[in-house]
């Protein structure tokens, strides 16, 4: 048999390698899908097609679609050329009709695989089993006579066949008249054991669940004289199951009656194993083995259409805080935690509850046929108890969000449902921080989400349009030096004010600016405004007043931040010693050494650094000596406790004492009462800030405040 192979690729090197490997065959080439179809039209005798999927003009998938829809090309066996990391492409290609795939880089295995497909083509042609019109008995006998004269060729064909060739009666047992030698390798039974059902019938080899459907398929195609093609499982002599592909057709007598069936039964176990592995990898998370987002989406789409009457809900679990541990203890540590969480959560699955892992640090339970919201809440508490047991030594918190799926229309936006679930679980973390809590996505949350969207829209406008930045303004809260009894600093507090939203505080819009990465543009505008205030202070004669500016971790770790900060200082002619940057203590969780190094570089210019909210975040006094900081700002929590407990039992004084011994000045935040002031003075606190001194002020009011204090330093 003359074999003609068409190689289609836009890679000249791939074509050259393949041509050299397959030099014994007749090779044709094309550089894209359009050229491939033209070659197939021009050369009807092309048997094999090696098809690159990634090509210009017309890609491999489009070619496969055309081949599948055009009966003229059905006899062409297509082998797709893919890359190592393109599992989805391989599955898609096989579904579109490809019989095999070859991965780059191209190796010697290509030759062996092509030889197998050539042997299959030869066997199909010799037995008259290509997808061609049925032939009559007389023609069949002539072919058989020709085959008898070339028994050696037939033997070669069959010896290369990964399976068996057969001729059988059309009866319920598929009584074999002829079985090739490949029977033993395929089934574990010698060919003679199947002949005329000597030891067992072929029907007994077929796995029971396929017997009826195979019989029905033969009944369907024989009256139409169509070729038979079906994949099913057989049971071998050892009890092993194997996947096979049967290709056959009827042999008809002069009266048009079925006299026999002839065909091939090919072992496709390896191909099926590859397909199953590809499908598994495509629908499961590789670390935990749980179903992934793609499978969840496909299941929801099907379930929502077919089971509209059953109650459905999603319970999402956000464990994004695990990422912080990865930064301190390494990637593998966090991966092991996620795996433990997956194993523990899997124990809660049942017929009505399925667990998915859509992303690395997120899990979703799909719950059906539940009674009411209380049942969902109760189950969510079980989830929380399970996770708290897993993370008992790691102090990991997270959010649990719940979305009930309302099926009141034919089309449901799955992406929107999953986005709502994500919002609900993230909202919990934002509101409750250190604990596992539960949140339903309801109208109240919908309103909050709409507000967040409006805030982000306003921030976008401010970030992109200099004329819109009036919506972003600063207020300044005085910081008093208790030793000098003077205002020595103002903390710049960002505010957002728009016609639609009204006044928005920093605790609301700064996290959104960080989340959307707008913090870089917004943060720079804040710095510029604060520097402008410093220049006004200088114009009024206040040369020794500092302005403290809050900087987020995202800003600080931007490689360009120090350079841009120094650039603005130079452009606006600001004395670095009049600048203080405030950083929350929690920023040191991410990467202490890297963060500390950046701060050290900034301090070298004379800029002061204060650690905000001290005592609530990193909480490691053992490393306080290593911090490149000038001041520690005691969080308002510790100052408020002075009113609730016996001051002598408060640890606030201990924090002040230890920090002073380590060379840091101390600023107490949120001072509102004389009792707090007296305690702080008694324990040698350096500076205070709070409503006892003043609320945050506009630029004009801040300058007036200084004048009233009698502070003029020209």
Describe the structure in your own words.
The longest helix has 22 residues, at 443-464. The model is unreliable at 129-137 and 149-154 (pLDDT under 50). A hairpin with a 5-residue loop joins strand 9 (241-252) and strand 10. It contains 27 helices and 24 strands. Helix 4 (87-95) packs across helix 12 (269-283). The radius of gyration is 38 Å and the shape is elongated. The protein has 714 residues and is an alpha/beta fold. The strands form 4 sheets. An 8-stranded mixed barrel has the order 16-17-19-20-21-22-23-24, surrounded by 5 helices. The chain folds into 4 domains: 4-126, Response regulator (Rossmann fold, 3-Layer(aba) Sandwich); 137-274, Beta-Lactamase (2-Layer Sandwich), CATH 3.30.450; 286-441, Reverse transcriptase/Diguanylate cyclase domain (Alpha-Beta Plaits, 2-Layer Sandwich), CATH 3.30.70; 474-494 and 517-708, TIM Barrel (Alpha-Beta Barrel), CATH 3.20.20.
Pick out its properties.
alpha/beta; Beta-Lactamase; Alpha-Beta Plaits; 4 domains; eight-stranded mixed β-barrel; 44% helix
Structural class, by secondary structure, is: alpha/beta
Task: Note the main sheet.
Answer: 8 strands, mixed, barrel
Oligomeric state, counting identical vs distinct chains: single chain
What would CATH call the class of the largest domain? Alpha Beta
Strand order of the largest sheet: 16-17-19-20-21-22-23-24
CATH topology name of the largest domain, in short, is: TIM Barrel
Task: Report, as a whole number of angstroms, the end-to-end distance.
Answer: 104 Å
